[in-house]
Amino acid sequence: AQELINKVKSKCCGIKVYLNQVSLNNEQIEFFKKRLIDVAQGIRCIFPDKPNSSTYNFCKTIIEDESSFIKMSKKLTSSFKEQHKGNTSDGVFIVSQVKIRENPGFIFLIKIDNRLVYQYKVNNDRATLKRIKDTFVEDTKAIQKMALISISDVYAWEALVYERNSGKLPKLAY
């Protein structure tokens, strides 16, 4: 599966760092598989205006032309950042094309907040602490938003969505 991790800095000058790929170990792969299962329990949505939905169209382009993955993933990230100005914390935005039951037609989007993490080192009977920057933890509380998007007409939904702090339907029209 192709994946792109985009670092979203919302507080300082709109800085973004795009990474083309990330290597995951088996434990990390399991973490993301569990998030896919979580989002499958999310709110079922459709895109009310598909021709004018940048999210839907960027995902459709990736699925129809895998060589467009990097370019469209960057556009998805920029669009996400633009639509969530002021209401999202620093963190990473991950775009993945996933295969479910041999169907490669899904895009998995996940926004994970940075979490403050300290590393400690023990020397005899003393410990020193060091803050580690740009981290997220394998804790579902760090997950701000997730969406699994399908452009096929096989399902009664086009997106399954999870939003940590919302009891209302998430906005998908961006």
Q: Give the biggest sheet.
A: 7 strands, antiparallel
Radius of gyration: 17 Å
- The coarse silhouette is elongated
**Count, helices:** 3
Strand percentage lies at 35-45%
Helix/strand/pairing class, anyone? alpha+beta
Secondary-structure element order, as H and E? EEHEHHEEEEEE
Oligomer: single chain
Helical proportion?
A: 10-25%
The neighbouring-strand order within the major sheet is 2-1-4-5-8-9-3
How many individual β-strands?
Answer: 9
**What does the average pLDDT come to?**
78
Low-confidence stretches: 1-15, 167-174
What's the end-to-end separation, in Å? 25 Å
Features:
single chain; alpha+beta; seven-stranded antiparallel sheet; two-stranded antiparallel sheet; 35% strand; elongated
What does this protein look like?
This protein is α+β, with helices and mostly antiparallel strands. It is built from three helices and nine strands; from the N terminus they run E-E-H-E-H-H-E-E-E-E-E-E. The protein has helices at residues 26-40, 54-64, 69-83, and strands at 3-8, 16-19, 43-45, 91-100, 103-113, 117-123, 126-132, 143-150, 159-163.
Question: Concise description?
Answer:
With 174 residues, the protein is α+β, with helices and mostly antiparallel strands. It is built from three helices and nine strands; from the N terminus they run ββαβααββββββ.
